[in-house]
Each structure stands twice: as structure tokens, then as C-alpha cells.
Amino acid sequence: MKTLAVLLASAALSFAAPKTELGVINGAAFRIDVPDNWNGSLVVYCHGYNAQPMKFNDQKLNPVLAVFADQGFAVAQSGYAAGGWAVEQAATDTESLRRYFIDKYGKPKETYITGHSMGGFLTMMLMETHPTAYDAALPMCGPLASTEQFMGRGAFDSYVLFNYYFPGVLPEPTKIPKDFVNNRELMAKIEKTLDGSPEKAASLRKFHDSNLKSNRDLASTTAFIAYMIKELNERAGGNPFDNRSVIYNGTLDDNKINSEIPRYAADAKAVAYMRSFYTPTGHISNPMLAIHTSYDPLVPVWIPNTYSSTIDVAGSSPLYVQQFVKHDGHCAITPAETAAGFAELREWKSRGNKPKGGEVPATSAGNN
């Protein structure tokens, strides 16, 4: 069996030119890379939120995914047949690609799953819903909580409060037009609005559980939330968010705002859709190592922390570890830190040496 040191050393080797296959399965583009030094095992990668379905070319793997090929693993990734919070389609498309890989290249010795952001969420979801398909998982910067919780009590509440402080800058959450887009112009407009009212901006930054550090972070997060709410309303067939019983706190005047802030009722069918895609159970059958940044303006740390409690209630604590890296930003996890986490996960899976939670050890991060 290889030791952790040997696994890390292998991650630093120059990447052998892979065999790259491009194709489409049921409307979802895919890419498969099989390195010359293939060890017979597979990493399935789930990409994050993207407004449109992803397309692929045959250019060199990006540095993060090259980490897995460096260690001798084939890498398979689906572009999903739909864009946005396409968890429903992405789960199906990812599984179709995994089965296609088996049909063409043979059953892998081991199959790992990983992903960033929404892809980290999918990693968690597929580990729970397909317990025999994946031997271990590495979700990174993922919102590991129920969609209803982190989008409702996180994103929606902050959006409604923004609109209360700054009426007319953004559409009502239930009336966002279909042609609404998230772009630099929108972010600049929001940031300028925030800069013009320092007291309100400071209140909004504090209202976010990540305690946002700048108006720029708040502007980019708010613009993304606006588009996300619009897209989810369309996907779910109605408004899935309900704030009628929410008590807002940490505002400029809690009593006044709770009396005056607009209240919205959710559509029952839309809520059911969002709960279906997806509400975690915490029931996993194989090791999962989650990595997050210590400051993430888009997916604040309270969200992945929630999954630790879900895991505890499910009795799956022996199979779960959460670590963090000391960086600011969404998914600001370096290739070296990814390589270190993957090596620890392999060591855990092959030898039973469970990694420690907390900060990613500096000695294991290495250089890539």
C-alpha cells in the first residue's frame, strides 16, 4: 500500500498526456481523460453552477482536474443538459456518464466523486442517493445543506432586505423578468448603490452569516442571488420561498423592519420541487472529505457546518471529515490543496487512516 507521502509525491509528477474523448449523452456534453499511466480507477467530476450547459474542448486539463490525472486516475465530467441549479438533470447526466465509462473502458478498480460549489452539493447528493457507485468523495466549497434552507433563509432573506433598504434597484423577487441577467454592469450598479449608503451597506454585510468584508463582495453575491431566484422560480414553476414567519434581526431597526418588510408566500409545488433537489439525509456508506475556505462570500461556512449535524443525526460521523483552507473567496482552493485532500482521502479509503478535521495541514499541501 502506498503511504500518504508517496501519494503526495506522485501528485507532483508532470502530467502525462491523456487520451481525451469528447461526446454527448442525452443532450449533455461530456469529456473523459485517460492518462497514459492510468491506474484503472476513475474520478467523476461535477462542475458548479453555470447559467448555460457546459461545453468541452480537447485542450489540456485545467490545473485542478490535472491533479487527479497526475495521480493516475481517469477523469470524467458531464456538462449537464441544462444550466442553472440543474441538480435534477446533473445527477442523471453524471450517472449516465459513469455508466458509459464502465461500458467503454471497463469497471474501474475504484471510483471517486468530487466537485466544486453546486458540484460539491451534487457530490454529497450522489454519495447519499447512489451508495454503491462511489468509493469515496471530495466535495469542495459546496453548500452542504438543504436547498430550501440555504437559499431560503440565506439568499432570499438577504435579497428581500436589500430591496427594503434600496427599493427599485432590483426587481421584486417574484417578478424578476425572464431576460434578467447577472453581469458586471449589474454588479457595478449594486456596488455604487451600497457605497452611497454606508450605514445600510454595513447592516446588509453583517446580516449575511459570512459577515461580508466589502461592498464588492456584497454586490457580487446579491447580483448572483437575484439571478438564482429568477432561475429557481422558472425551474420550480413558482415561488419556492416563504418569509411570512421570518423574524429579521441584526438590521438597522429590527422592530420597524419586521413590521414593514414585504412578506411572500411560497407555492406548494415549487417548495416540493426544491426539497426534492435536494434535502440531505446524512446517510453515506463510504468516506467523504469536505474542504471549504474560511471565508466564502457566496457559500458562508454555516452552510457546510450544517451537514456535520446532519451526519451526526444519521449516525454517519465515522465516514465524514470537514477541513478548511485559510483563503478568502468562493472555491479559493489551490491545486496543491486539492491534491493534498485527495491524497488524504485515498489514504483513508485504502488504509483506514481517517484525516483530521479542521485546517488542512500545511505539511500536506505541497506544491503542484
Tell me what the structure shows.
With 368 residues, this protein is α/β, with parallel strands linked by helices. The protein has 2 domains: 229 residues, 3-Layer(aba) Sandwich (Rossmann fold), CATH 3.40.50; 129 residues, no CATH class. Helices cover 43% and strands 15% of the residues. The protein has 13 helices and 9 strands. A 9-stranded mixed sheet has the order 1-2-4-3-5-6-7-8-9, sandwiched between helices. β5, α4 and β6 form a beta-alpha-beta unit. α1 packs antiparallel against α12 and α6 crosses α8. It is globular. The protein starts with a helix and ends with a helix. The N terminus and C terminus are likely disordered.
Write the layout of secondary structure elements.
Blueprint: H1 4-11, E1 19-25, E2 28-34, E3 42-46, H2 63-70, E4 74-78, H3 87-105, E5 111-116, H4 118-129, E6 136-140, H5 147-165, H6 184-195, H7 198-207, H8 215-236, H9 254-260, H10 268-276, E7 288-295, H11 302-314, E8 320-328, H12 335-351, E9 358-359, H13 362-365
Helix pairs in contact: 1-12, 2-12, 5-8, 6-8, 8-10
